[in-house]
Each structure stands twice: as C-alpha cells, then as structure tokens.
Amino acid sequence: MTIDELKGRMKGIAVVQTTPFNKDGSLDLEGMRTNTRWLAEYSAGKDFILIPLGSTGEFYAMTDDERKSVIEAVVEETAGRAVILAGAGAAGTRLGIELCQHAQRAGADGVQVVLPYYHIPQEEGMYSHYKTLAENVDPHFGIMVYNNPTVSGSWINPPLMKRLAKIPNIIAVKENTVDVFLFYAMSSVVDPEDAVILTGSGEIAGTYFSVFGCPGFISFIANFTPEIAHSVYKALQANDFATAVDICKTRVEPFDVFVGKLQEKYGPHTGTARTWGSVEGFMYLAAVKAAMDLVGLRGGEVRLPLIGLDNRDKAELKDVLREMGVL
User: Fold this and answer.
1) Of 7, 42, 68, 146, which is the active-site residue?
2) Inter-helix orientation angle 93-106/64-78, to 10°
3) What is the pTM of this model?
C-alpha cells in the first residue's frame, strides 16, 4: 500500500504483542504463530494494528536472529488481515537501520521505533536518528515514533515532533504520556496530515484523549481479550463516552487493579522515574502472559530480569478474568 493509505490505517487498536518463551527460556515460535493467527482472525475487517517486538514483546531480551524470526512468523500468519508495524528499536542507529530493512524485506507494513536508549541524544541527534532510518527504507514503508520516556529516559517534545513528522514516511506517533496537557500540546502542534498521534497508554487513556481527536490506542489486554479493546473503540467512534467509561470501569479496571497489587507484592520498583507512583513497574507483562495461558493461548514465560506469577497470583487472576467477562 502507499504511504498515504498506510497513514489512513493508523487508527483503532494497536495490539502490542507478547512474545512467548518456554520454561527453559527458549523462544516459543510456534506459540507466537498460534497467538498471531488467533488475533488475525479476530481483527480481519476491523481497525487493528499488530505490533510484535515492542516493549511488551521483550525485544531487548532477545537475540537479533530471534527478533527477525518473530517478525517473519507474524507476517506469514497475518497474511494481510491487519497492519503490521514491527518493533525495530535499537540504541544505535546502524543496528536500527538493519532491523528496519529486515522488517521491510519480511513484508511488514512499517516499524515502531522506540527512542534511542542508554546514551540519551541531543535534539539534533534524535532528529538525525529517525531521519536516517526513514531515508534507508522504501518511501512507502512507514515509521511510528514510540515516544516513551519510561523505557528510554528521554522524550521528544512537541516542537521536535512537529519537525520529525514532516519526514514523509514518519506517519504516526505512539505517545506514552498520561498527562492530558502534554498530549493536547502534542496533538495541537503536529499536523494530522503529517502524522497520526495514538496514545500508548491503553483503553482508559484512549477514552480521555479521544476528546482531542485521538483516533486509537495501544492495548496489551487485547493479547487475550481483543473484544474488550474493540468494544471501547466502537463506543468512542460513536462518541458514546458513557459506554466507553462503563467498559473501562467494569472490564478494564479490574485487571489494572490486579497488576497494581502485583507491583506492590513484588516491589519496590527499582526505577528512578516515578510516572505512576509507588505501584510503577512492568508486572503487567507476566499478568498478560498468565491470562493468555488461562484463555487457552500461548502466553508462556517472561525472561529475566522480569519475574512471573506464582500459583496464588494465577488463582486470583482467574477470578479477575471472570469479573472481566473473559472466562
């Protein structure tokens, strides 16, 4: 598809796919295929984007060969039924180019590229990083900037994002701020003809930010319950905010509360940033994978340094999924 057609499909639910690992720590590639087929069947004909190898996909804990095999598997199993933006995050630009070019050769529609991490670049370095990636792929191969300070230690401010969005094949921004004023500033400055801004913070943030024209949201619960994510999106499309809020409170919030309890149980979180407060952390990954196992998918294990759930947690999670109407 052309870059304009791809930009037009930057809406709806972007599923940040998990990567299943076996108990011995090896990659469960067949499990990845199984999960992708299931998502592709549900998403056919709907506004869905699949994002393998984002933060939720634990890309940082995988070898380059593993990452490439996952992208190839997702492309094969999706067979055009959803847009694929493969994770191509790298701390250095040279590796980023290689990962972007591989995703293009594999047949992905574009890539999601998290901000360079470890050595935080100056603004000019940040701009040059994305410009270089864009210049080294086909002009109709899309790039979504993953603007996440929690995992990168940096943040692209609205004026710099406005400048980046002028690069023709930078078509979207996954904006991870939960600050309504910052999101409003970003959406006000970036021309929607240049790039689409999606919220990276899920169904609840998507409900708030839809007021400012946000056309979709990233979802991790869609790994095991795409129906809930899609029901929120349909309500927002109809400007039925009361229904969207009700779904968030009754069917999304129970999982968030459960994850908060896990953060406290296995905490404290060791990060220096405090975006979410004392319950900050990434236990949601283990919870999502356990939920996938419970609904009959291939969730599998997380890789260290992340930690999984114990049997008591999994028993409580089963009750939570019943409350959400998933089981």
Assistant:
1) 146
2) 30
3) 0.96
